[in-house]
Structure formats: structure tokens, C-alpha cells
Amino acid sequence: MSHIQPGALTLERVSYAIDGKPLIEDISLDVAPGEMIGLLGPNGAGKSSLLRTIYRTNRPSSGRVLVNGEDVWVRNARWTARHVGAVLQDMPADFPLTVEDVIAMGRASHKRLLESDNSDDRALIDAAIALLDLDAMRERLFRSLSGGERQRTLVARALVQQPAVLVLDEPTNHLDIHHQINLLRFVRSLGITVIAALHDLNLAAMFCDRLCLLDHGRLVTTGLPDDVLTEDNLAQVYRIEASLTRNPRTGTLWIMPA
């Protein structure tokens, strides 16, 4: 499949159910290399369940998840870890690892068992630490960090995997508005394929190329932010009345709940 560009992500009629109860149903989506996609929807809409099918936690009940034209559920977990990086909600933190140790874990899928880090690994780890402004805390225990510092550490770990696709599940949780904006701006600047579940509609409109609106496990609509975040869609999916205007600084859509 040499014609497939690195970073291409395709979901082909993906469904996932637990004990016969569907959590996501028949979702198809094509994500172009380098595109940043935002998954929107209320709690329980299926955002996290869908993301978990991409990084091999939820095996689809039906359908396929393709990265670079390869089915991640046919390839092994090591292959997926080399091609898909993930920053997840509520990762366990009660372990005696430093920030640098956690970031270095991102190189594991590229190495043989018990193989030491080489100079290339160290260069990637140091670059990620610098990019995420973590140098001052590289020797601190991960469990001692604030929520925002942990989030930045996990993004750095995902980057040293050198993934073709980056999956973000509520990446702005635990971050103040300054760090929310900086994190999404940074991720956007990477030029890699990103699919992110987001709660903040205004940040999604500001940073994402396209949005996918989910409700009760189904894809309601996908498209440009202006086409997805309409008064009718917000009323249908979020059950709110909202006024739509423009951010005077960015020109992007701005949603104000009534």
C-alpha cells in the first residue's frame, strides 16, 4: 500500500458494543495526513469509546480502523504503538517514575526487550522535554505533578513515539485556559494527524480543521466548524440554545450559550 500517505486514518463502519449494548454504531471517517479533527458531543456520546478503537483498547464489534492503510486490529500492538500515540484521560499516576522516565517509555515500541536508550533516543527525549517546557521538572516524580504538568508529560511521551497519528482524549482537562490554548496551538503546529475529543466548543472551532459531532454513539454530522456548530445542531445534540458570533481576534466561530 505504498500509495497511502503516512498519517492517513480511516474508520470504516466502526461499531463497538458491550454485552450487546452499542456504544458506537456504524461510524465512518476519513482523516487526511496532517489534519486535526475534533470529536464533539455530550457525555456518553461515544467519543472516548471511538478513540479507544484507534489505539487498540476497544476491539470493534464490526468495521475496521486503518492507519497508513493498515488495519490496527490485524497488526500487533507493537506496530500500533509505533504508529499511534495517545494521551488519555485519568492515566494512573501512583508509580515511582520520574518525568524523564515516563517520557522515555514512549521509545519502548521501537526497541527490543531490555535494550538501552541510544543517542538517537536521548536526542528525541531531550527535544520533547524542551518542547513541552519540562526541563526544570525532569527529575521530579510523575505522581508529584499537577494535572497540567502530567498532561504535558504525557504529550511529550506520545511525541517520542514518533507517531503518524496522535489521539487525544480530553487533552485540556486539568489545564487552565493559558495552557489549554498553548497545548492545542502546539499540537496543531506539529503537522501530524490528530484526532481529539474536546468539550470546549470554542477551542474546537479555533484549532480544528474539521469537527465530528457524535450523539448516542452515532455520527450526527462532520464538516468545517461553521457547518457543524449550528444553532440547530447544538439544540439537537447538546439540548441548548446558543448564539453564534465571531471571535473578534481570530475570526473563528464563537458560541455563547443562552
Task: Characterize the biggest β-sheet.
Answer: 6 strands, mixed
CATH class annotation: Alpha Beta
The CATH architecture classification is 3-Layer(aba) Sandwich
Shape: globular
Query: What is the CA-CA span between the terminal residues?
Result: 50 Å
Mean pLDDT value: 91
By CATH, the superfamily comes out as P-loop containing nucleotide triphosphate hydrolases
Helix-strand string: EEEHEEHEHHHEHEHEEHHEE
Characterization of the model:
The chain is of the alpha/beta class. It has one domain: Rossmann fold (3-Layer(aba) Sandwich). The chain has helices spanning 47-54, 77-83, 99-104, 119-131, 147-160, 177-189, 201-207, 225-228, 231-237, and strands at 9-18, 21-31, 36-40, 62-67, 70-71, 84-87, 165-169, 193-197, 210-215, 218-223, 242-246, 253-257. A 6-stranded mixed beta sheet has the order 6-7-8-3-9-10, sandwiched between helices. Strands 2-1-4-5 form a 4-stranded antiparallel beta sheet, covered by helices on one side. The protein has a two-stranded antiparallel sheet with strand order 11-12. It is globular and about 55 Å long. The model has no long low-confidence stretch (mean pLDDT 91). Residues 9-241 form the ABC transporter domain. GO terms for molecular function: ATP binding; ATP hydrolysis activity.
